Prior knowledge:
By secondary structure, the chain is an alpha+beta fold.
Amino acid sequence: MRLSIRKSGRFTYLYAIKGYRTEDGKSTTKVVEKFGTVEELREKLNGEDPIEWAKQRVQEMTEQEKELNEDIVWRLNTKLLIPKNEQRSYNGGYLFLQKIYHELGLDYICKKIEKKHRNKYDLSEILSMLLYTRVLYPGSKLSSLEDAKRLIEQPSADIHQVYRALSLLATEFNEIQADVYKRSLKLGKRDTRVVYYDLTNYFFEWEEEAGLVQYGHSKEGRPLPIVQMGLFMDKDGFPLAMCIEPGNTAETTTLKPMEELLKEKFGLSKLVVCTDGGLSSYENRKRDSAGGRAFITVQSLKKLRSPLQEWALDTKGWHISGSDSEYDISQLDPDEYNSVTFYKERWEPTRMSTGEVLEQRIIVTFSFKYREYLSYVRNRQISRAQALLDSGRGNTSKRKSPNDAKRYIKSEYCTADGELAQIENFSLNQDMIDQESRFDGFYGICTDLEGPAPEIIKINGGRWIIENGFRTMKTDLRARPVYLKRDDRIKAHFLTCFLSLLLYKYLEKKVNRGGQHFTTTEIIDTLKDMNFLSVNGEGYIPTYTRTDLTNHLHGSAGFRTDYQIVTKKQMRSIISLTKKREKDNED
């Protein structure tokens, strides 16, 4: 540290500056303290030489820094046992989530709820604890409370208060989602021109039905009661809104109330709603073709009327984006066009059961690569079916799903010679194999939009975003299994999973700026490993490995915890920074 004397006009400024190296190894300096001008100091120091005073002050600051940075090992006693039951290791990775939590104004949302319900516990402390532990140490509510004790900031709530907080959050289920969406707009524009909607379900590890937990079609084929989660995500992959429905609710009926929620609570009415075929009934399509909305949905080619199906599978009349030529795919070399997506389209007015006519556009795509993939998958299933036949386990009465290999097994009854008894024989169903292979490489989309087909195909291709969101929630955030039985607390549990995914997505966006791509596993594991050794009277020593990812985490958050030691004062400043919120986020 040294004194810097700089003249500007008729004034002379004095600074304490310090040299350091940047991450790329370049030498530079920074101002540690501004002392003021020589003229100002001369008046304050009653005649003492300002420059000599400043030199003495810089020397004192240098000595203080040396004392702070000197090796602390000599202060530790090699023969003194550490105190029994004293916690010495703390996690600081949650601080990066905490900064986003407060940027989204979730603490302020909790304060509004507290004023309304006059609860006697800190709702924000409990909610934030549930969100941080859902990302870092997902588990039951009791285990979350215990795991939160690993954090630098210790929880003060008890498990009874946690359960009461869940019930309170459930009463404000839709309002919290709408409020956090509106506050998220202060962090940047949300792309809601196109929204993706899908439904998944979560099984419960008991067999009794009650309330929301009902038997329904399990997407995992488990014979257990389930609840269903409907989820809207924006075009950039950020969670927008969600609902929890009983397990026996028809999928197509969940879309209308969710769209009404977006309109009434979120102020979003002009949308392009993109779904898979199972969620888009003709009634849903008709509703989404009016009022400033539009729809894009997957269309099963197997369910098309015969003339339309023949047109879709015809090898002639195909187009490629950017070309005016028309192609016959049967005359093309699959190797040469392996990565090309062909398309054809036509408008097909459809008469609904109500007598109304739905004007919709069918877009069919074809890809040689997709054909190879479907053929590969089917051949593996055929091999499994043959293995079942060879082992005498070809009985088709226990078929579980449309993708079960047993669908390729057919049964026939015959009478043994000289006997009246019928014998059931099993064999491969070649007719079904041939029928399915006709659709290899083809994919259908239905919409009421009039834009270029390649653009609509691209939008529909973004449906992986919501599938990835479900995967993150189920696998990384472990939204299942659920250990709660009351409906209100079950809803609150999934609300915390939804909000945890939102926090994570904002963190992921910040960290992956500039062309970087760190995976979900990499980011979460790094946060989990960002531990510190607490040294009494000194501060916190990082015990994690500094990497490119930790550099990006610190760069995105505006603070650093990767010094050789972080003093207690510095850590308090960092914690205070993570809880800082813009004033306009309190409006």
